[in-house]
Amino acid sequence: MMQGVRVWDAPTRLFHWSLVAGFAGMWYSGKQGGDLLQYHIWCGIGIAGLLLFRLLWGMVGSDTARFAHFVRGPGTIMRYLKGELAEHEQPGHNPLGALMVVALLGVLLFQVSTGLFSADVDSYLYDGPLAARIDSGLAEAITAWHKLSFNLLLGLVGLHVLAILTYKLVKKQNLVHAMVTGRKPLGGVAPRLRFASPALAVLMALLSAGGVYLLLTRV
């Protein structure tokens, strides 16, 4: 019997949808160029804060947000691929979804890191916040890496969206609705999940904002 079970906490859901908005803004402003590159930089800084928060929340947050809880080894992945892993055993991200999360976070970190040191080779008006700290030739090389990695990022986002559609059409599971409400229909024994305090999430958000501020002003 399927039952609606609380799986995602509010901080994780807020991070997810803020990242979606930030990514859309980053893509649009970067694609348009010109004066919108200033917004591109702001979106990148915002995403940097979100990523730092997610890394911290992945260590101290709720069970389904912790990397140690949902990132599994080859044995569990094979069980999932064979259909031997029950939903209640992996109530949050499934093993393949976990790999996608790690890949997306990794490429986003690279994207934001290279963006900080990238040079505006067209107008030279909107260099990355830390571009002046390095040699101009290196900054231009990093800009090329920044543009190239974005294509990889778009590919991963496309795969992510395709997986969501597959779950909706094949498994009849609405993952978007689950990430909005925090609840997910699960069969079997309801998992016992620990949810972290919202106050802890606020603290992690403040630490993340402070970390990004120090990076931009003290490096």
TrEMBL record:
UniProt KW Membrane keyword: yes
Keywords, ordered alphabetically: Cell membrane, Membrane, Transmembrane, Transmembrane helix
Membrane disposition: Multi-pass membrane protein
SUPFAM superfamilies from the UniProt entry: Transmembrane di-heme cytochromes
One Pfam family here: Ni_hydr_CYTB
Subcellular location: Cell membrane
InterPro entries (UniProt xref): Cyt_b561_bac/Ni-Hgenase, Di-haem_cyt_TM, Hydrogenase_cytochrome
Domain annotation Cytochrome b561 bacterial/Ni-hydrogenase: ranges: 7-182
Signal peptide, first to last residue: none
Transmembrane segments: 36-57, 96-117, 148-170, 193-216
Keyword Manganese: no
PANTHER family xref list: BLL0597 PROTEIN (PTHR30485:SF2), NI/FE-HYDROGENASE 1 B-TYPE CYTOCHROME SUBUNIT (PTHR30485)
Protein name according to UniProt: Cytochrome b/b6 domain-containing protein
Source species of the chain: Crenobacter oryzisoli
